[in-house]
Amino acid sequence: MSNTFCPLPWIHLATRPNGDVRVCCTANASGADLVDSKEAGLVMQDGAIMNLRDHSISDVWNSSFMKETRLQMLNNQVPSSCTKCFSEESKGIVSKRQWETIVWKERIDIDSVVAKTGADGSLPVDIPYFDLRLGNLCQLKCIMCSPHDSSSWIKDWKMQYSKYKTFELRQDQHWDDRNRDYTWYQKGNFLNDMQDQADSIKELYFAGGEPLLIPEHYKILEFMVASGAAKNCVLRYNSNGLEIPDRLLELWNHFKQVKFNFSIDAVGDKNYYIRYPSKWETVVENLHRLDNTPDHVIVNIACAVQILNVLYLPELIEWKRQQNFKKINKDNGAGMIGLHLVYLPSYLNVRVLPKHLKDLVTNKLTSFINNNTDKRFLTDPMGKQRWEGFIKYLNYEDWSNKMPALLEYLEVCDNTRGLNFRETFPELTL
Ligand code: SF4
Fold first, then answer.
1. Which residues partner with 22 through β-bridges?
2. Which of 42, 71, 95, 97 has the most ligand 1 atoms within 8 A of CB, as the residue to mutate?
3. Mind listing the pLDDT tens digit for each residue in 226-258?
4. Which of 4, 5, 6, 343 maximizes ligand 1 atoms within 8 Å of its Cβ, making it the mutation to test the pocket?
5. What is the DSSP string of 353-392?
6. Is the pTM of this model over 0.85?
């Protein structure tokens, strides 16, 4: 296989909350191509983005964009939308390309899937892996989120946008809901198309909006159960974990495995600030509830690392240790918590920290690493290696020129919410 190979263009389709289709979520993220285009990694046809409201799954799967992406990888080229993975790998961070390859090698014979590739890059439409963002319905307005991904943000965005003065902030926070249909999954042939794929599906990944609020998420689970396909299918979630109906736990019983990534970014009022307005008591209660689910339900705390919480990561891990969970992060994050970096909005990225705070974070995280002698932490790629990768990433470039945008953004949000980031994060002397 070529050095630039990634299995995803052969096994996977992903959507954005508005139904636009992307090669994968990392392909369509900040830093995802050489010109940092917001359209990076989106599947295009005749210069327009393909959307699952208007295009069938099979049209997208064998679009010229997907065919070309496969051929580039087979020819040892890096598709421009995939540069983020290779850039992360060069800094010692385990990329999505790397960990997805490990996961899927265990599940399917990748060589035989690739052998079905036509000379033009086409493939039979038997897709084992979907990443579905079914609209933007969400009850939270996390500080790093936006109306693109959360319906709750829309009201605040309308109050806030006119207050932004910094050019970068106005540009970054720009949102235009014309031509955006966050109910695309209720239309067209999408649900029927998905049902046609049921027997091929080995993993369904749901993220937000908040998937557990969305009725069509339950419909998909129900047809997977009714067809008998659920027993071969892994479910994966990124969720705020605030709404867990009994009906969901009953449906999960039919699936091969459920991997639930519970988004928590800090302890108590710091989490409330970042994942506003999530109630900490509900977070804790639901974590303990999930800790008592059957063994095939795997639960991980997934933390989005950004400027506001990076200094407090050791405290979150300490809190988690004190909870004595039976299984949370048992096999992920080297038994502590899962970590991923926030790239958007860019002014919340850890590289924006001024030098004195980068030094403080570096010292605190280095001390945390050095004091951790757990064998798994030392050997698991998601343990010490990942933490060291974060420190390296943090110090690699200086983005402190984004500080005016950051401060203005936090102050405008604080005014809307009646909060004060300087009180919630007192050590963060920005
Ligand atoms: S190389 Fe990275 S960005 Fe490209 S498809 Fe694979 S995981 Fe996605």
1. 14, 42
2. 97
3. 999 999 999 999 999 999 999 999 999 999 999
4. 6
5. S-HHHHHHHHHHHHHHHHT---HHHHHSTTTHHHHHHHHH
6. yes
